Amino acid sequence: MAQLLPSSLVLALVFSATDVILCTENKGCVARSFGYDSVVCECNSTYCDSVGPVSLPPLGQYSSYLSSRAGSRMEAGQGQVQVSSSGAGLRLTILPYQKYQRIKGFGGAMTDAAAINILSLSAGAQEQLLRQYFSKDGISYSVVRVPMASCDFSTRLYTYADTPGDYDLKNFTLAQEDMNMKIPLLLRAQAMSPCPLSLLGSAWSAPAWMKTNGALTGKGSLKGQPGGKEHKTWAQYYIRFLEQYAKYNLTFWALTTGNEPSAGRMTNYSFQALGFTPEEQRDWVALDLGPALQSSSHPHTHILILDDNRLLLPHWAKVVLSDVHAARYIHGVAVHFYMDSLVPAEISLGATHQLYPEYYLFGTEACAGWGPLDRGVKLGSWDRAEKYAHDIIEDLNHYVVGWTDWNLALDQTGGPNWVKNFVDSPVIVDAKRDVFYKQPSFYSMAHFSKFLQEGSQRVGVSTSGKTQLEFSAFVRPDGSVVLIVLNRSSSTIQFEVWDQGVGYIPCTAPAHSLLTVINGLLAVFYNLGDGDYNISLPYHRLDDGEWHEVELDRYGREFTLRLDGGGGRFEITASPGQSQEIIIDPSVVMLGNSFPSGHNRSFLGCLRDVRFNGRSIPLDQDQHSEGLQVLVASQGVSVGCYSDACRKHHCSPPLVCVDLWRQHDCRCPPGHMTKETSLGRVCIYTLCASRPCRHGTCVAHSLSRYSCHCSEGYRGRHCEVALAVFHSEGGNSLSLSSMFAISICVMAFLVLMLGLFLYSCWRRHKGLKEGVYHVSAHHGEWEDIRENVLNYDEEGGGEQDQNAFNMVELQRSLQPSPAQSLRYSYTQNTSSNPQTKLPQDNNKKGMSNGNGSAAIALRLSIPPSEAETLSSPLTFRRSQRAFSFSSQDLARYLCEVIRDMEHTEDPGTMTTPRRPSGKERNLASVRSLSSLSASQGSEVRLHAGQITRMDTFRTLRAVMCDLRGDSKTPDSQRDKLRESRGQLKCEKNG
Fold it and tell me: Over 70: is that where the pLDDT of 167 sits?
């Protein structure tokens, strides 16, 4: 449950076709055609079509306002807001959570020519003309540019200090054009305006005696250097101008550094100009104008640099704003409309904003009919109205905060202008008939100035596809939404506008047209898995400036919306759709990341006492945790609600009005101390008022002492030194996704290390158990050695064979054997050792003599010192485990020999022609098998009888494979081989 301050929703769309839209209660246009592509609206002292004040339509409906090339001007229409889409091919979606710059305002210039033309009408017509521009029934201009002395739209050349050598400006005085024309008209306009006018002063030229060329026109700049007497006198000229106008209760919001400084550097320039390079302007602001303004009675007046065509950006801004001494006095950059087609807005305006986002961009001059091929006045030209709208939308979409037209009114020739530089104007005066004509460009301006009040903020707009429409959307201070769409094409475009807080609005954009749609009601939008739905209260609007209580209940797929306790027309229950599972928009809910900025997608207004499931959610950042502070701040929630209180109450300068929600307070501007006196509240100037801290907060310790608390990433006395600082969206703490990724990496590393450790242990254990043997790289030597081993008893000559080949490769092991050494001995069955004597087999056949069977014994030779330690049974068993070795090594080797030999032809039954002596046999065995460092502290005996060579091969293979547990040798075959007379036995002696 929450209490909400109602906020209306206004949707304004502008199309550059022949139609323009404005407001309710409008009076019809008295159209007149002068032969161009559209018409003008004629006004006199008694009648003029008017826009009327902006008002909201009935609930559930929208209002539209259209002007077109065909002749429509502010024609009102209404329609019903749709719950579902109309299926139009193009959809424009309002994105209120994408926020950009805030609007300052729109207006025109009160030149000498404009004042002359307005005053040429009768009193009634004058009143009508001023009301069309400045009243709430008109188009609500809020900015007026005022030339300081003469310009080309004057009837003569003059300045306020034409006395040569008057460096003290003792003879400074306003001209008759100011006293009799501009000041009285400005006061009348101010009285009509519902809000204070923002006055903007611009000088065209310094007095001739201050300039290098000694003339107001042509190529010329100030004499001397910045900081010199001419430059300081020119700065004081600005201060005197402000002081003189202040005597008539006209205070200036801003001053520019001079109109079109590039013109003053052109040879034979035809009218008033004062040349500056960006470096000269930078130094003049830093040394002269800035300090003079801050030490004057008008320190709150803004300084805008450039005041020239945007093709000079961003270079001009880089030179001036990169200097901390000049930048501290500057608030914005002023740009002109001319030659915009030569340079894209993105590389001029957009680039400047990206470089210096803290300085706003403001359009200070524009007019039609200035080009050599399109000169002067064209009554009824819609093409010029389209150019206005196109340029304004382009500028606004590239961070410009306001747009000022040139002359408020001109005559039918486009003057007066002393140099005959005639141009067009939104209002053309026909003094002879006591009428004035509102051009199509007047209505083009109206679409922006009428709806985009000061404080409106540009928001995002998305399209469902490519389109020829140009558009820009804004949220006004009252929470209403304005969408301006321009259609410059020659065809009608059907589309719909969707706003989450309103619904779907079907629209038609005729060729060359502008449109405005207004609506507001309480509604709730949701999605339970089977589509978007909303429920709303169609009988009550929340635009009465009062607090209301809103309650939303959900049970399954049933929603109940209550206003101020509910009941009757204050309550509605609906259950559209079939599903009950809420679908969360992933663009709003962020998992494992920082909160997005500005994701408020619905309510705009004042909010308090928010509860969820009966639990209070504090919105005051001082009352909740750090995590909730981030969430609340990311939604654009701030303490305090602001109304239009300051628009209805004015504070005497230098006091500034502070909106306290339906109340106001007059406070001193930043950098000043407040003191209460008998005369009221007084602001005392401190050095902080000069904005000395470039990137930080100024803290005044006294009137003359201050210190700068620098923002993160900046250092220095004035916070002017930028540091290379890494900024993380999530702050100093890691996000959940980052922590998860790091944890996975650490676990993977640990698993890898564990795997390497286990593999190392396995390899070490395997090496101790089975041994590692050196293998010769020369396979040929191996073949000869194998043959020597196999043929020793059968072929004879082993003693020669064993010396015929290099046995070193087989005798050397890759690593020391744990058994230290192996001794292989050929032992007769008559051995003196009774434990190793074998029973004689009397049934042997095929023997050449009666000797018993032979046995080859492999014994582990242990050094005496180690043998003593193995005397005990326990120690011996431990030694067996420590020197663990498998007889499978011998099996593998002999099986490899057998496999190789099976590929040769069977030699048949062979008998040994000569039996070598025991000594010879012993030596051959030792040398042939010494490379097999296998031992388990036991003996492996091989008994061989006189058998055929092939039988020997098969017997050895069966026995060796049996040792390995080779399943390829059938059991029946192994049993048969064991029963054979000449079998080879493998015994394991404990």
Answer: yes
Helices (H), 870-917: 873-882, 888-902
797 has pLDDT over 80: no
Between 89-98, 106-115, 227-236, 253-262, the lowest mean confidence (pLDDT) is in 89-98
Count how many residues are written for the chain.
990
CA 982, CA 844: separation in Å to the nearest integer?
7
> Half-sphere exposure of residue 874, counting CA atoms within 13 Å on the CB side?
0
Q: Crossing angle, helix 382-396 and helix 440-449, to 10 degrees? A: 20
Q: Classify residue 633: in a domain, yes or no.
A: no
The answer to whether residue 46 sits within a structural domain is yes
Rounded to the nearest 5°, which phi and psi values hold at 181? -125, -65
Contact 562, 508 (CB under 8 A): no
Number of independent structural domains in the chain: 4
Residues 81 and 132 occupy one common structural domain: no
**The pLDDT value given to residue 724:** 58
Domain membership of residue 139 (yes or no) is yes
What's the whole-number mean pLDDT along residues 311-320? 97
In a domain, 856, yes or no: yes
For residues 150 and 285, state if they share a domain. yes
User: C-alpha 459: how far from its chain's center?
Assistant: 16
Question: How much of the chain exceeds pLDDT 90, in percent?
Answer: 41
User: What's the confidence (pLDDT) of residue 936?
Assistant: 39
| Residues designated catalytic | 260, 365
Based on the fold, state whether residues 704 and 783 are members of the same structural domain: no
Other CB atoms within a 10 A radius of the CB of residue 508 amount to 17
- Residues 802-850: tens digit of each pLDDT: 444 455 554 444 444 444 444 444 444 444 444 444 444 444 444 444 4
180 and 83 part of one domain = no
Q: Please state, in angstroms and rounded to a whole number, the distance separating the CA atoms of residues 575 and 533.
A: 9
Question: The tokens 């500057």 sit on which residue?
Answer: 330
Give the strand pairing for 696-700 and 706-710.
antiparallel
For the segment 358-389, what is each residue's pLDDT rounded down to a tens digit? 999 999 999 999 999 899 999 999 999 999 99
Q: Please tell me whether residues 444 and 479 are part of one structural domain.
A: no
Asked if residue 932 and residue 884 are part of one domain, the reply reads yes
Taking only the tens place, the pLDDT of each residue in 684-708 is 778 787 778 877 788 877 777 888 8
The label of the residue with tokens 């100011």 reads: 178
Total Cβ atoms within 10 A of residue 847? 16
Check whether 542 has a pLDDT greater than 70: no
Cα 342 to Cα 312: distance, rounded to the nearest angstrom = 11
Nearest to residue 243, comparing CAs of 184, 301, 326? 301
Written in H, E and C, the secondary structure of 520-583 is: CCCEEEEECCCCEEEEECCCCCCCCCCCEEEEEEEECCEEEEEECCCCHHHEEEECCCCCCCCC
Phi, psi of 957 (to 5 degrees): -65, -45
Domain containing 654 equals 645-722
CATH number at residue 136: 3.20.20.80
- pLDDT averaged over every residue in the chain: 75
Q: Are residues 118 and 64 in the same domain?
A: no
Is residue 94 located within the same domain as residue 148?
Answer: no
CATH number at residue 44: 2.60.40.1180
Q: Where a domain ends, among 722, 752, 785?
A: 722
How does residue 596 score in pLDDT terms, banded at 50, 70 and 90? very low
Beta bridge partners of 612: 615
